[in-house]
Design goal:
Protein name: Fumarate reductase/succinate dehydrogenase flavoprotein subunit
InterPro entries: FAD-dep_OxRdtase_2_FAD-bd, FAD/NAD-bd_sf, Fum_R/Succ_DH_flav-like_C_sf, Fum_Rdtase/Succ_DH_flav-like_C, SdhA/FrdA/AprA, Succ_DH/Fum_Rdt_flav_su, Succ_DH/fumarate_Rdtase_cat_sf
Mean pLDDT: 96
Shape: globular
Number of strands: 21
Helix content: 25-40%
Radius of gyration: 24 Å
Largest sheet: 5 strands, parallel
CATH class of one domain: Alpha Beta
Organism: Terrimonas ginsenosidimutans
Pfam families: FAD_binding_2, Succ_DH_flav_C
CATH topology of one domain: Flavocytochrome C3, Chain A, domain 1
Strand order of the largest sheet: 5-2-1-9-17
Cofactor: FAD
Length: 658
């Protein structure tokens, strides 16, 4: 039933061969075809801009007041590409291999190799757009290291890489808006997809200012709506990030792939109390120069700078000498949790570890700068001063952000960090062409499951989003639309549109008519607590079964006692949030079901029953070498479909970063 449409032939030739043989739509016919793009972050903005440039008639929707507010803007550390500017052994194959291995052999080979191939084009595209990547003294683009690799392949713009890349994509999008090729709908939220004769033919959207629902036709629909990390309530995601568009597609028949595969980022500012509504990421790029440690003594209450070197446990360097502080995110996160659970955590909550820059401040940067200036035998104060200047240029805005939030100066004392929910590898199931199992419905970027397996390597999210939008979908969508050029626009008075809009309106009326006593926020917090404690960094059969029952009970309570003030036909952010939380509750149940069904550990999915003697994730390839694609059948009812993963080039093995 699942056809991944992977081209035949050698792995390194599949994408080239596909591009040479896929169907095309001629320029005159492109002007007859309408495409809907939902979400205008990196994947959505780049897709809408590219398709508009090709001549298609594009409608782009975002719930923010501007595409510039998409969550892509929050990405800090960088974007991967196999340029090998450092001449340190990188290649397309090496990036492909690192990504497959980093995802613990749970990703599709063909998609990942294509991603590695087009990564080199992304940098050229962005430089041409004027993205201000960091450069070395001679003017060449600079690179830094990220987790899960032993080469420098990450391009960056200080700690604002996502922002700069989004501005580049936004400018390309706005050019098409100005030319009339793209029609932009801001403050609009997609609340259903319209399917006619098995094909996606439009969406129902709600104007978040007036509250009115609208019908929009498209020959194809692209969902570029990001991930669902906010199901945990506390995450590094923007507070508006949600799963609603993808979930509506799922309820209309689109399969949801690997929903339990969520990523815990090891480098976040720790939780300080119940008052928080989100968490703040400290870029993984900081692990490039920071050393992570805890005291060797349990419950050590001394200040970090009072603990001598010999009493510090650089546990990542000790456990994983080959990769050290640059192990993949899932490995680093579990190691931090293990140390804190064992009583070696720091800070007031003891749920934190140190990220210390002083060593490299002095020995890596300070000594190099002193040498440049011809200073012989510099004292430590001079080395620190010179090193600070370099670090400030590389990471200054991140250090400033940390100090504003915590009140501590990370140049003087180590940062305190702890893992937090960040990215979701699961998403709508798509084939090689990025099409879901519903004809004409595509999912790009974090909204799909395709490229990262069970764990995403750092700096690969931006890479995937731009690859999908700029370099993949312009080819693959043409292969589908070439057979649609004779399809005339379907009037939005069609029965399917009327039925979909009526269902959306009925749900909204039901929500606002509950008139309960509990706030939407309180339900979201309770859901997040269940998910974090029982489907978070560690999972077990007992906890997952309990979570499923608790979420089902929470759902009943939500639909009988939620309180939503205000009216429907007006700007009502509480009503918007209620719909999103209702979808999160349903998604949370499926995530726990998927985690329970996958009785192995892989990447960020860590089942306590399945681990090696030294606490590493233990896969069971003979039983679970597949993509779990879930079909919605009804309330609390899903059917599992399996896409078997075939590895022709890489031989899966127990991951080893030692």
């Amino acid at each position: 039933m699942l056809d991944s449409k992977i081209p035949a032939g050698k792995l390194e030739e599949k994408w080239v061969d596909y591009k040479g043989h896929c169907k095309l739509v001629n320029p005159a016919n492109k002007r007859k075809i309408e495409i809907i793009v939902v979400g205008t972050g990196l994947a959505g903005a780049s897709a809408a801009a590219s398709l508009g440039e090709l001549g298609y008639k594009v409608k782009a929707f975002c719930f923010q007041d501007s595409p510039r507010r998409a969550h892509s803007i929050a990405a800090q550390g960088g974007i991967n590409a196999a340029k090998n500017y450092q001449n340190d052994g990188d290649s397309v194959f090496r990036l492909f291999y690192d990504t497959i291995k980093g995802g613990d052999y749970r990703a599709r080979e063909s998609n990942v190799h294509r991603l590695a191939e087009v990564s080199v084009n992304i940098i050229d595209q962005c430089v041409a757009q004027g993205v201000p990547f960091a450069r070395e003294y001679g003017g060449l683009l600079n690179n830094r290291s990220f987790g899960g690799t032993q080469v420098k392949r990450t391009f960056y713009a200080a700690g604002q890489t996502g922002q700069q890349l989004l501005i580049g994509a936004y400018q390309a999008l706005e050019r098409q808006v100005a030319l009339g090729n793209v029609q932009m709908y801001t403050r609009h939220e997609m609340l259903d997809v319209v399917v006619i004769d098995g094909k996606a033919r439009g969406i129902i959207a709600r104007d978040l200012i007036s509250g009115k629902t609208e019908r929009h036709f498209g020959h194809a629909v692209l969902l570029c709506t990001g991930g669902y990390g906010n199901v945990f309530y506390l995450s590094t995601n923007a507070m508006g990030s949600n799963v609603t568009a993808a979930w509506k597609a799922h309820r209309k028949g689109a399969f949801f792939g690997n929903p339990c595969f969520t990523q815990i980022h090891p480098t976040c500012i720790p939780v300080t109390g119940d008052h928080q509504s989100k968490l703040t990421l400290m870029s993984e790029s900081l692990r490039n120069d920071g050393r992570i440690w805890v005291p060797k003594k349990q419950n050590d209450d001394r200040k970090a700078n009072d603990i001598p070197e010999e009493e510090r446990d650089y546990y990542l360097e000790r456990r994983y000498p080959a990769f050290g502080n640059l192990v993949p995110r899932d490995v680093a996160s579990r190691a931090a949790k293990e140390r804190c659970d064992a009583g070696f955590g720091v800070g007031t909550t003891k749920q934190a570890v140190y990220l210390d820059f002083r060593f490299n401040l002095i020995n890596k940067y300070g000594r190099v700068e002193a040498s440049k200036l011809g200073i012989e035998n510099p004292d430590e104060a001079t080395l620190v001063r010179l090193g600070k200047e370099v670090v400030k240029e590389e990471y200054g805005n991140l250090f400033d952000m940390y100090e504003k939030i915590t009140g501590e100066n990370p140049y003087e004392v180590p940062m305190r960090i702890y893992p937090a929910v960040h990215y979701t590898m699961g998403g709508l199931w798509v084939d090689y062409e990025l099409m879901t199992n519903i004809q004409g419905l595509y999912a790009l970027g974090e909204a799909n499951f395709s490229d990262h397996g069970a764990n995403r390597l750092g700096a690969s999210a931006l890479m995937q989003g731009l690859a999908d939008g700029y370099f993949v979908i312009p080819y693959t969508i043409g292969n589908y639309l070439a057979d649609e050029i004779g399809t005339k626009p379907i009037p939005t008075t069609h029965e399917a549109f009327e039925k979909a809009e009526a269902a959306v309106s009925d749900r909204i009326k039901t929500l606002i008519g509950i008139k309960g006593k509990q706030s939407v926020e309180s339900f979201h917090k309770r859901l997040g607590k269940i998910m974090w404690e029982k489907c978070g960094m560690a999972r077990n059969e007992k906890g997952l079964k309990e979570a499923i029952v608790e979420i089902q009970q929470l759902k009943k309570e939500f639909w009988s006692d939620v309180r939503i003030p205000g009216n429907i036909n007006e700007m009502n952010t509480e009503l918007d949030k209620a719909g999103r939380v209702a979808d999160f509750i349903e998604l949370g149940e499926l995530m726990c079901k998927d985690a329970l069904d996958r009785n192995e550990s892989c990447g960020g999915h860590f089942r306590e029953e399945s681990q090696t003697e030294d606490g590493e994730a233990l896969r069971h390839d003979d039983q679970y070498m597949y993509v779990a694609a879930w079909e919605y059948k009804g309330e609390s009812d899903w059917q599992l479909h399996k896409e078997k993963l075939e590895y022709e080039v890489i031989k899966p093995s127990q991951r080893n970063y030692k």
